[in-house]
Amino acid sequence: MPRVFLSHTHSDKPFVRTLAHKLQTRGVRVWVDEAEIKIGDSLIEKIEEGILDSDYLAAILSPNSIQSAWVKEELRSVLTRQIVGKSIKVLPILIDDCEIPLFLQEKMYLDLRSWEVPGIFDAQLDRLMQDIGIDCCAICNTTGMEFVRIPEGVFKYGNDGKKIYLDEFWIGKYPLTKETFAPFLATSPTIGLNFPEDYLERLNDRHPATNLTLLEAKAYAKWAGYSIPTVKQWEKAARGDDGRHRPWGNVWDAIRCNCGEAKIGHTTPVDAYPNGRSPYGCYDMVGNVVEMTSSGQWSDDSDFLEIEYYFCKGGSFRSSNISCCYNFKWRSSTRCDSIGVRFVIENPSTDQFTIT
User: Do 37 and 43 contact (CB within 8 A), yes or no?
Assistant: First the structure.
């Protein structure tokens, strides 16, 4: 696991202690002065050792910290090491309005000025975990399916950016794949009778499972103990909480997903486009396959046994200029080779899931 050096001033200790605890619960090793420096130790030597042994330096930015001689010295030490080839990445974290030091202004910072608001800290921290290569996952011990945590809180929903509150939930990191679908199909062979002739010959790959009706997707969800997301859950997982129209931002970028412009003409493995991940680490939220939701034509949360049409989200390998805001309806009983599904859970239990 990576190690993060927390560069801060004493007046920001309440935030730093909270940050350190949350990082440690996610498996990140943390260097904090009060835990590492003992009575009689040389401050300069211990700080130098801590920086040298770290992969990242989190610069906590506040009016007090930018005036701190110690913080300035820690940043100077990291910059020196970057020059001589010891790569330590600086992660600016803004916790209060202040003048960001000149040499950090060109870096994207993590905005935690509202860190005491419920849900904000965890949402932003999940983004940080993604940036340093660690996604918070719950892995199902039965199916092997991976789920990422979507923290509670408000997000901007739809084209008009209406603010909607959702409780915490976990959603599939990837759409359902054929290899994950295969064990269920073996227990329910009648479901496979109406699939394309060559479908059963390709059940060992990482491509999305397609050609499912909504009731068949529901049958898998019941078998595995999952649910199909509502349009609101799906959209928050795809867009984050800041109202972006695509998982990576607002500007359409065809190289980040399997879309019509790529001219591939069929599905690709679900992990083929890491640069198209959502703020929470979900793959293929646009492109590859359109995805089912449990929301129907008349109500976002209708029981889909009563739904003649369901709403789909995202776009497929046939789509272009895809927006996460867009919904379209599809008949529940109709199959399609460009429609797939991912699932949600509420609270992963430790006897059914391994949390990483």
Answer: yes
- For 203, what's the count of Cα atoms within 13 Å in the CB-facing half-sphere? 16
Domain containing 18: what range? Answer: 3-131
Please give the full DSSP string across 72-123, using - where no structure is assigned. HHHHHHHHHHHHHT---EEEEEE-S-----GGGTTS--EE-TTTTSTTHHHH
Residues 106 and 243 in one domain: no
Residues 152, 15 share a domain: no
Task: Clarify whether residues 8 and 65 are in a common domain.
Answer: yes
Tens of pLDDT, residue by residue over 187-227, are: 887 776 677 666 666 666 899 999 999 999 999 999 999 99
Please give the model's pTM, rounded to 2 decimal places: 0.67
Q: 299: pLDDT confidence band, cut at 50, 70 and 90?
A: very low
Q: Which amino acid is at 248?
A: W
Number of domains in the chain: 2
